[in-house]
């Protein structure tokens, strides 16, 4: 189904909003709950490449919409990740692989966001190594922890849309 | 398998071309794209805020009648006291107007106050922002000051149809001039947010403090807006000087940190002071570089 990526985006949006809400409570510590990378993993197993690309771009632009980072920095990085994952589905064929991928991708995307925001910042900051480590650790932890519920939601939507299951031997 | 590899290669190539085009594309297109995604998210933010209000409503509904009547009685007393204050201020206002007419003093900017509920808070090392549930539809414009009571919260940085983004006082993009309490000569100091890299409270920096300035003893020194530049009305509280002052590297001036007088991350409601007439500073803020 051609519009599967859009329905999937709508189904994923509550999770993104939930992460924003959770970040709201962490605002005084300058940390955020980052889940955009994790949301990519399950759809890349089942969607066609072009659908995964559109889904990833929309995820990225949704995250960027309210944040002053260079336009497209995160969105295009997520698209590149989506192309890589949908071309190498054997890397995410079972749950443990998916969990590992979620942690790595979420941390990678979070790093890209962090660097992009430092690039777009009006003033320099010092001693950011600690903050970066903390943010990456949090995103890795949140990415791994949130994969299962997010993937379950996304798979349920894909099942309803009659998108074929991911092959066991891709 | 080969087809898969070829497809991946073609996708990477297409992505590279698209990124190159994206960089070359006029900024208006990028802004439109950003605006479209913001508007996509706006209904969810409104729904979120309204459900929070509903939760508060039911929480209040669960309180006893005695408790509510006691609160009503307290409010009635406060209202009576405030009415007396209003009358007193009206006399002062008339006298002020008369004196301004005599001295031909420039009339300060007039503001329209728009009260808005906070939808979400967003912070990183490089910005501290809140999103409110009112926007262009209610007449809010970029650059308008945002206050809570007589305390400065920040400044509007981006306005969308039904939401607005506000840079808090502690955000690195925030700058304004200020007076210090206890400085009889009214030296102007600068306040700007600093990049936050700790788990502690976000603060701003107060610079260009004269060397002969000493903190008033026994109480934290308050920092007030000057009213210069036409963005903020004068004598609004920006916050308090944190601890002491320290000499800068050059040594001609001193610096200190500013602690906001309210917990900016726990605000539920703010007032946006929209100038009735657009001032030059506000017009400058509406460029591409001001997000």
Low-confidence stretches of chain A: none
The CATH topology annotation of the largest domain in chain B reads as: Thrombin, subunit H
Tell me the distance between the termini of chain A: 20 Å
What's the story with the biggest beta sheet of chain B? 6 strands, antiparallel, barrel
Number of domain modules of chain B? 2
Q: How many individual β-strands of chain A? A: 0
Radius of gyration of CA atoms of chain B, rounded to a whole number: 24 Å
Radius of gyration of chain A: 16 Å
Q: Would you tell me the structural class of the helices and strands of chain B?
A: alpha+beta
CATH architecture grouping of the largest domain in chain B: Beta Barrel
Largest sheet of chain A: none
Helix/strand order of chain A, N-terminal first? HHHHHH
Give the helices and strands of chain B as they follow along the chain.
Answer: HHHEEEEEEEEEEEEH
User: What percentage of the residues of chain B does DSSP assign to strands (E)?
Assistant: 25-35%
Strand order of the largest sheet of chain B: 1-2-5-4-3-12
Shape of chain B: globular
Report the top-level CATH class of the largest domain in chain B. Mainly Beta
What is the typical, i.e. mean, pLDDT of chain B?
84
Can you tell me about this structure?
- The complex is a heterodimer of chains A (170) and B (291).
- The mean pLDDT of chain A is 88.
- Helices cover 71% and strands 0% of the residues of chain A.
- Chain A is globular and about 50 Å long.
- Chain A has helices spanning 4-25, 38-46, 49-64, 73-87, 95-120, 129-160.
- Chain A has one domain.
- Chain A has 170 residues and is an all-alpha fold.
- Chain A is built from six helices and no strands.
- In chain B, a hairpin with a 4-residue loop joins strand 1 (111-123) and strand 2.
- Chain B is globular.
- The two termini of chain B are 45 Å apart.
- Chain B has four helices and twelve strands.
- With 291 residues, chain B is α+β, with helices and mostly antiparallel strands.
- Chain B folds into two domains: 2-44, no CATH class; 111-291, Rod shape-determining protein MreC, domain 1 (Thrombin, subunit H), CATH 2.40.10.340.
- The chains are: A mainly alpha (170), B alpha+beta (291).
- Chain A binds chain B through residues 13, 17, 20-21, 23-24, 27-30, 32, 49, 53, 61-62, 64-68, 71-72, 76, 79-80, 83-84, 86-87, 114, 117-118, 120-128, 130-131, 134, and chain B through 4-5, 7-8, 11-12, 15, 18-19, 22, 30, 33-34, 37-38, 40-41, 44, 48, 120-129, 131, 165, 172-173, 192, 194-199, 201-202, 263, 265, 291.
């Amino acid at each position: 189904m051609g519009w599967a990526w859009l329905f999937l985006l709508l189904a994923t949006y509550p999770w993104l909003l939930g992460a924003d809400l959770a970040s709201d409570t962490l605002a005084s510590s300058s940390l955020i709950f980052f889940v955009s990378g994790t949301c990519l993993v399950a759809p890349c197993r089942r969607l066609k490449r072009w659908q995964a690309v559109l889904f990833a771009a929309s995820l990225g632009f949704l995250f960027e919409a309210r944040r002053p980072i260079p336009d497209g920095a995160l969105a295009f990085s997520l698209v590149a990740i989506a192309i890589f994952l949908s071309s190498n589905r054997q890397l995410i064929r079972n749950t443990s692989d998916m969990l590992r991928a979620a942690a790595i991708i979420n941390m990678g995307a979070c790093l890209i966001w962090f660097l992009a925001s430092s690039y777009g910042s009006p003033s320099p900051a010092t001693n950011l190594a600690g903050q970066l480590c903390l943010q990456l650790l949090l995103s890795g932890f949140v990415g791994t922890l949130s994969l299962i519920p997010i993937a379950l939601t996304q798979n349920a939507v894909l099942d309803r849309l009659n998108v074929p299951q991911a092959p066991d031997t891709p | 398998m080969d087809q898969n590899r070829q497809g991946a290669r073609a996708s990477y190539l297409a992505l590279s071309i698209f990124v190159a085009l994206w960089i070359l594309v006029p900024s208006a297109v990028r802004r439109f794209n950003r605006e479209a995604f913001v508007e996509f998210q706006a209904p969810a933010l409104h729904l979120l805020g309204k459900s929070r209000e509903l939760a508060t409503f039911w929480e209040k509904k669960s309180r006893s009648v005695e408790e509510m009547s006691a609160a009503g009685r307290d409010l009635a007393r406060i209202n009576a006291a405030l009415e007396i204050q209003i009358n007193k201020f009206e006399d002062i206002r008339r006298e002020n107007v008369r004196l301004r007419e005599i001295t031909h003093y420039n009339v300060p900017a007039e503001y329209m106050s728009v009260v808005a509920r906070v939808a979400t808070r967003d912070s990183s090392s490089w910005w501290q922002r809140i999103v409110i549930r009112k926007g262009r539809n209610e007449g809010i414009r970029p650059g308008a000051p945002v206050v809570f009571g007589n305390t400065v919260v920040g400044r509007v940085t981006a306005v969308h149809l039904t939401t607005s983004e506000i840079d808090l006082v502690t955000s690195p993009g925030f700058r304004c001039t200020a007076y210090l309490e206890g400085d009889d000569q009214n030296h102007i100091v600068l306040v700007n947010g600093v990049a936050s890299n700790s788990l502690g409270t976000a603060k701003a920096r107060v610079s260009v403090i004269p060397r002969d300035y000493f903190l008033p003893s026994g109480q934290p020194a308050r920092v007030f807006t000057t009213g210069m530049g036409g963005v903020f009305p004068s004598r609004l509280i920006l916050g308090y000087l944190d601890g002491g002052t320290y000499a800068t590297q050059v040594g001609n001036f001193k610096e200190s940190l500013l602690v906001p007088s309210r917990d900016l991350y726990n605000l539920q409601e703010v007032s946006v002071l929209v100038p009735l007439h657009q001032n030059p500073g506000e017009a400058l803020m509406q460029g591409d570089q001001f997000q």
